[in-house]
Design a protein that fits this description.
Chain lengths: 244, 225
């Protein structure tokens, strides 16, 4: 992680969905490179293909054409085991709907990826508690999801995403279901993690607050990259957003 | 915190130890107690019916091979045909047919409730897959849950059926038969009922569990369509 190698490289990714007889092209050729440790936000109107792009990067779905490289490995070449390993250890996912497993406590949710990774129980529990501490929920480790607020559930999800020290965190509208203040707390937390742990964070959002913490913002619309802005350039265009 | 966790495993493998699978399955059964109860109910009923018929047969055959004239007479008073010398007591074709139907209905019921359960758990399954679960982890979780449900349900059903058969026999043929009936035989019948129940429960979950295991994480996350 010394020199900023590209951890995610997307090349010519196209995604079609077949709906009956019509083919809808949702991603129309995306090229993108993301460096290790970057905090990247993907902005775009609803239906522009953010979630679809995320699913490609996270190995949850396969592109119709083009390739996604993680650590310069084409993930379409991976078999089911390697793909599961990638999801387990390389990538942490955070969803708009939190997706905490309802029948498990906060701690069990956080340790589940460690179970899959083959980490012994004691070690997993200890690490799970540390992670819950980082997200400020140490005292809540025995709580079930329905006993937690939305913001708290999202914190559990963040702790869970960090379980196996992933290189990349993919967050699809992590603040989409939260109120303003809670959303801001989550954004601050993500920023802190990207700084302290050097995790690459890729986040899709409608939330303009997210822009301030991003190293780069990728604007997509209608399945294409419209523009990419570095943080330095942002302050200039930010004024215009309000006008639009 | 910073140091990467070194896997003490062969390269790039994800695991779910059997003990952990059972733990998760038990948790899931406990937290979905009501659903479990409904799934198990048809099994309890079918297996208790099976155990009742089986144990009843045991009792009647024990009486017929005994020398207890009074009890045998009471048997024929109940309209039960005593088979000829050296021939075992058997179920009538109608009884077999009803038994078969009841077990079939039970399996169909289990398939139905398990399909609903899987649909309810799409998101959970998708999430687990995003966290690194393999298809067979999901399959195993569902099979273990079904086996546990089968075990509990058929143990309850088997015990209930056997108990009803015994009490009924005592009332119908008099308490003198208590000495004639072999407890071993009854226990064997209950045991066979429990095995059958587990089997039915697992058969019933196979298709829903395969469906769940094969699901792609994206489909699962998007919900039910
Ligand atoms: N499985 C699918 N089958 C057909 N169409 C799909 C499928 N998944 C997504 N789409 C379509 O792709 C387009 C982009 O969807 P996507 O979810 O990527 O948008 P998004 O940018 O994440 O939007 P939002 O901000 O609302 O989450 C939408 O028009 C959607 O209808
Ligand atoms: Mg989306």
């Amino acid at each position: 992680m010394n020199q900023p190698a590209s951890i995610v490289r997307i090349s010519g990714v196209i995604k079609d969905f077949t709906m009956g007889k019509t083919i809808v092209q949702v991603l129309k050729g995306i090229d993108l490179e993301i460096k290790a440790g970057e905090y990247v936000s993907i902005m775009g109107p609803s239906g522009s293909g953010k979630t679809t792009l995320f699913n490609m990067i996270g190995g949850l779905d396969k592109p119709s054409a083009g390739s996604v490289f993680i650590d310069e490995i084409d993930i379409s070449q991976l078999d089911a085991y390697e793909l599961a390993w990638l999801r387990c250890r390389k990538i942490g996912y955070i969803f708009q709907t939190f997706n905490i497993i309802q029948v498990m406590t906060a701690l069990e949710n956080v340790t589940l990826p460690m179970v899959f990774a083959g980490i012994p129980d004691d070690e997993a529990r200890e690490r799970g508690m540390e992670l819950l501490d980082i997200v400020g929920l140490k005292k809540r480790f025995l709580h079930k999801p329905f006993e937690l607020s939305g913001g708290q559930q999202q914190r559990v999800a963040i702790a869970r995403a960090l379980a196996n020290d992933p290189a990349i965190i993919l967050a699809d509208e992590p603040t989409g279901n939260l109120d303003l203040a809670t959303g801001e707390e989550i954004i601050t937390l993500l920023k802190m993690l990207s700084r302290d742990k050097e995790v690459t964070i890729i986040s899709a959002t409608h939330d303009l607050k997210m822009l301030n913490v991003s190293d780069r913002v990728i604007w997509i619309s209608d399945g294409k990259i419209e523009k990419i802005e570095k943080r330095e350039e942002l302050s200039i265009s930010l004024g215009q957003i309000g006008d639009k | 915190m910073q140091g990467k966790i070194k896997p003490n495993l062969p390269q790039k493998q994800v695991v779910l130890p059997f003990k952990k699978s059972v733990e998760i399955a038990v948790k899931s059964i406990k937290s979905r107690f009501f659903r479990t109860l409904i799934t198990t109910m048809s099994l309890i009923l079918a297996i208790s019916f099976y155990a009742y018929i089986k144990v009843n047969l045991d009792i009647i055959s024990s009486i017929t091979v005994s020398n207890d004239k009074a009890a045998i007479q009471r048997l024929s008073l109940q309209g039960i045909e005593i088979p000829g010398e050296g021939r075992a007591m058997e179920l009538s074709p109608q009884e077999r047919w009803i038994l078969f139907l009841s077990l079939l209905v039970c399996v169909v019921g289990i398939v139905n409730t398990q399909l609903m359960a899987v649909a309810d758990r799409f998101r959970e399954i998708g999430t687990m897959k995003c966290l690194g679960a393999l298809d067979r982890f999901i399959l195993r979780l569902f099979l273990i849950e079904a086996a546990l449900q089968g075990l509990i349900g058929s143990a309850l059903g088997g015990a209930a059926g056997a108990l009803i058969a015994c009490l009924g026999a005592l009332v119908k043929y008099g308490s003198s038969i208590a000495g004639l009936v072999s407890l071993n035989q009854i226990l064997t019948s209950v045991f066979s009922a429990v095995v059958l129940g587990c089997l039915l429960s697992i058969i019933g979950v196979l298709y829903p569990a395969l469906l769940a295991a094969k699901m792609q994480p994206v489909e699962a996350m998007r919900g039910r369509d």
